């Protein structure tokens, strides 16, 4: 795989020259093999670059400016996307190259695998959290049921006590009535006896 960097050696734009220099200097620092293709002196390079830059990546006027970077026939990007990849420590991914040993950049496969594992871990954590939440709800439900049962028992005991008290009162009332009846009978008997004695006295006289 050959990295192709399309440049304009005789560009009159200071900004374009600076961008081109930034790209090649960084590639040199990374020791990435690349080929410089001059579009200022070679019409074929100019036409090939213009034809192979994707339409959505071209500016409004339809003419892409250098530097433009390719991996063989595959378009990598322009200076802005290269700069973003450099800031994200993802230049090898931008170029479509595997990171060399000792590089801080994580390969695309590992990134995707890592993100997939992270999603699985998040799903497991959510599942555990839901399980714990369900268990807590069950415990709360049991906790709510226990006081309700205790209240029912207390109410039942209260009703029994009330019934016993009512029964005791009824028995007392019955006893009082019985005593009152006995007293009335005794008084009536005494009155009858007195009347009988008075009648006997009258007859004796």
Give a structural overview.
It is a single chain. The protein has 205 residues and is α+β, with helices and mostly antiparallel strands. It has a domain at 1-103 and 172-204: Glutaredoxin. It is 67% helix and 9% strand. It is built from 5 helices and 4 strands, in the order βαβαββααα. It has helices at 14-30, 43-52, 79-87, 91-95, 108-204, and strands spanning 3-7, 34-38, 68-71, 74-78. It has a 4-stranded mixed sheet, sandwiched between helices. β3 and β4 form a beta hairpin. The longest helix has 97 residues, at 108-204. The protein starts with a strand and ends with a helix. The relative contact order is 0.07. The model has no long low-confidence stretch (mean pLDDT 79).
- What CATH calls the topology of the domain at 1-103 and 172-204 is Glutaredoxin
| Coarse morphology | rod-shaped
Given as residue ranges, the uncertain stretches (5+ residues, pLDDT < 50) are none
Average pLDDT for all residues: 79
Produce the secondary structure layout.
Elements: E1 3-7, H1 14-30, E2 34-38, H2 43-52, E3 68-71, E4 74-78, H3 79-87, H4 91-95, H5 108-204
Parallel strand pairs: 1-2
Antiparallel strand pairs: 1-3, 3-4
């Amino acid at each position: 795989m050959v990295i192709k960097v399309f440049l304009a050696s005789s560009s009159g734009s200071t900004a374009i020259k600076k961008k081109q220099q930034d790209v090649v200097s960084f590639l040199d620092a990374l020791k990435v093999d690349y080929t410089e293709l001059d579009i200022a002196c070679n019409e074929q390079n100019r036409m090939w670059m213009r034809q192979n830059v994707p339409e959505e990546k071209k500016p409004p006027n339809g003419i892409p400016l250098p530097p433009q970077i390719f991996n063989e026939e595959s378009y990598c990007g322009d200076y802005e996307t290269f700069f973003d990849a450099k800031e994200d420590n993802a230049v090898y991914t931008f170029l479509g190259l595997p990171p060399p040993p000792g590089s801080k950049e994580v390969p695309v496969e590992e990134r995707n695998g890592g993100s997939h594992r992270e999603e699985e871990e998040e799903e497991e954590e959510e599942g555990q959290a839901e399980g714990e939440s369900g268990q807590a709800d069950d415990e709360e439900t049991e906790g709510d049921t226990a006081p309700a049962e205790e209240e029912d028992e207390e109410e039942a005991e209260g009703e029994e006590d009330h019934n016993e008290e009512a029964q005791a009162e009824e028995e007392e009332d019955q006893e009082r009535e019985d005593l009152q009846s006995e007293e009335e009978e005794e008084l009536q008997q005494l009155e009858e006896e007195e009347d009988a004695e008075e009648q006997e006295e009258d007859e004796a006289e």
